[in-house]
Amino acid sequence: MSLSRRQFTTAALGLAAASTLPKGSFAAAKGNGGTIRMMLNPAGTMSFPPFVIKKFKLDEKYGFKFETINYTNANTATAAMQSKSAEMIVYEWLATARIIDGGIPIVGVAPFMTYVNTVLVPKDSPIKTLADLKGKRLGVHSKTSYDWMIMQAAAKQKYGVDLAKEVTIQEAAAPLLRGSIDQGQLDATQMWNSLAADMLASGKYKTLVTIRAITEDLGIPTVPYLFFGMRADYVKENPDNVKAFVAAYQEVYEILKTNDDVWEERGKEMKLSPEGIKEFRDQVRRDLVKTFTPDMNPALQKTFDIVLKVAGPEVIGFTKLPPNMLSLDYQ
């Protein structure tokens, strides 16, 4: 029996929708219908999971309500978590440890990405290694960040160069650093991966080194640099919602790995060039992490010991890494 035009159209639309979703099944998690508010830097890579959750209505699928709250600096995001104006944030592990040490209990419930940032130099730059930064002008997004500390550790161990003393540092937000190097005010700069993609695609810049390469060269295990952290009180009171979010994120992971359309759509919203979108997409896909593993907490401890030795407690702000920041209980 042949299909009517309406039946055919309905079937075709169903197949088209199904083709945009990843193959395989996901955990049968169901939230309690409550709201999860996530602090979000809309210019960063962290904007992609919320975009996918909303686009595919994964919060509805898994039984919770999802909202995002934009922020422009870490202090604002931290204050929101402290005042219970938000339930979740995506932060680097060292910044999260500082927040916990400062008295705001946070539980890592799902990973996001490994070390993704880079150090860029102009295309015609003679700088080839970290040692060549000696006497140069370097942009860093934070003097208390993991990126800067691990650069110092590598330069000291491999080349005997103390970057903190032998480099002129300009500390600023990544967009400002991009403007400074564009104007010739910097010889090299750290750069967020979301901005580095377009810079590399322009042909005006090249990668001096990636933070991941530095980390691996020092023999440090690869761990989630960025992860989803929730307030500990919310996790305790709403375990079903936590499991539901983690299940939704695991589906987000599969979509980001396989669906090119979401990268193009969100990349255009971020005003990336077509070449930049592809560069960005391919890099992030390499560095996405789907689940926590038992070895990740010990690996974080090993990494912390190295940066503490290099930077000292005065810079880091504390001397002991909070135990078991990453929870495997909700995946």
What do these coordinates show?
The chain is α/β, with parallel strands linked by helices. 48% of the residues lie in helices and 16% in strands. It has two domains: 183 residues, 3-Layer(aba) Sandwich (D-Maltodextrin-Binding Protein, domain 2); 100 residues, 3-Layer(aba) Sandwich (D-Maltodextrin-Binding Protein, domain 2). Strands 2-1-3-10-4 form a five-stranded mixed beta sheet, sandwiched between helices. It has a five-stranded mixed beta sheet with strand order 7-6-8-5-9. Helix 2 packs across helix 12 and helix 6 crosses helix 15. It starts with a helix and ends in a 15-residue tail after the last helix. The N terminus is likely disordered.
Topology:
Elements: H1 5-19, E1 35-40, H2 48-55, H3 58-62, E2 65-70, H4 74-82, E3 88-92, H5 93-101, E4 106-113, E5 118-122, E6 137-140, H6 146-159, H7 163-166, E7 168-171, H8 174-182, E8 188-191, H9 193-201, E9 205-210, H10 211-217, E10 226-231, H11 232-237, H12 239-258, H13 260-269, H14 274-287, H15 296-311, H16 313-316
Parallel strand pairs: 1-2, 1-3, 6-7, 6-8
Antiparallel strand pairs: 3-10, 4-10, 5-8, 5-9
